[in-house]
Specification:
Radius of gyration: 20 Å
CATH topology: Spore Coat Polysaccharide Biosynthesis Protein SpsA, Chain A
Number of helices: 10
Order of helices and strands: EEEHEHHHEHEEHEEEEHHEEHH
Largest sheet: 7 strands, mixed
Number of strands: 13
Number of domains: 1
Shape: globular
Structural class: alpha/beta
Strand content: 15-25%
Strand order of the largest sheet: 5-4-1-6-11-8-12
Length: about 290
């Protein structure tokens, strides 16, 4: 199984910072967000990873490429722990970068079409958005693979429950009658009080190649975008889509405030940061 990470957006909510640096390279407690994603996939046994980009991805590519001059400098200075980490990043996985063609419509379904030529025909693949971070004892991709291997559905959709008053912010999942895991449809940003459940999709999926037929049959929707949720709805109407409620802390990091919260959460989990950061937070006059 190969993995696909989509970072083909413009990161407009982070402008001007994202004008030159992709938001997926912004650090979360000292580690770029994209690195967390790659490491989670590798932990689930997925070492062939396709990162779909729109442009300006050189910074991300360099992060996972060998850096001879930097390695020589670290070795000369005796900074062997840093040297080991830099070398590990270039060997962690087989990472390829695929540019999303301008001919494809904007939307979170188009990166799958861009990645298709790089996927193994007939095999399922992991698909994830690059915005969020999920802190879990068992990495999310591992939880998803276990579910896929158990049910062998057309797709597995990651989900978590949110408070009822937040359901209007997300794509809410309606389950089939009598089932606690089989999806009927996704209701995008329902009006308050009308959500079919408080389970929302959180940007991690496993798909079989049936997704591509569904995408070909899906027209662009709201905002002129190709929405993955529309294709997943089509899949659910034709075959089985299983919902996996993820065990872990889901943190959106797609805007500056939520990214700051993710930084605090991750830093408080690091032994070298926790105590000093906690002391600082307690000292604030809020």
């Amino acid at each position: 199984m190969k993995g696909v990470i989509t970072i083909a957006g413009y990161g407009t909510r982070f402008l001007p910072a994202s004008k030159a640096v992709p938001k997926e390279m912004f650090p979360i407690a000292g580690v770029p967000l994209i690195q967390y994603h790659v490491e989670d996939l590798v932990a689930a046994g997925i070492s062939d990873i396709i990162i779909v980009v729109r442009g300006g991805s050189e910074v991300v590519q360099n992060h996972f490429a060998p850096a001879p001059a930097l390695e020589a400098h670290l070795e000369e200075k005796g900074k062997l722990d840093m040297l080991e980490e830099v070398r590990r990043l270039s060997e962690i996985a087989n990472v390829v970068f695929v540019r999303q063609p301008e001919s494809l419509p904007y939307g979170n379904g188009s990166p799958a079409l861009a990645a298709k030529p790089w996927l193994t025909p007939g095999e399922p693949f992991y698909y994830m958005f690059g915005d969020d971070i999920i802190i879990a004892d068992t990495p999310t991709p591992r939880q998803m693979r276990d579910t896929f291997e158990c049910f062998q559905p057309a797709a597995v959709l990651a989900a978590q429950a949110v408070p009822d008053e937040e359901t209007h912010l997300y794509g809410c999942i309606e389950l089939k009658p009598g089932s606690d895991q089989e999806m009927a449809r996704i209701v995008e940003k329902p009006d308050p009080g009308t959500a079919p459940s408080n389970l929302v999709q959180i940007g991690h999926f496993i798909f079989t190649p049936a997704l591509f037929d569904a995408l070909q049959e899906t027209s662009v929707g709201r905002g002129g975008e190709l929405w993955l949720a529309d294709a997943v709805d089509r899949l659910a109407s034709q075959s089985t889509v299983v919902v996996e409620e993820i065990d872990g802390l889901w943190m959106a990091a797609g805007d500056p405030l939520r990214q700051l919260k993710a930084n605090v959460e991750m830093a408080l989990r690091r032994d070298d940061m926790r105590d000093e950061l906690a002391e600082y937070l307690r000292s604030l006059d809020l």
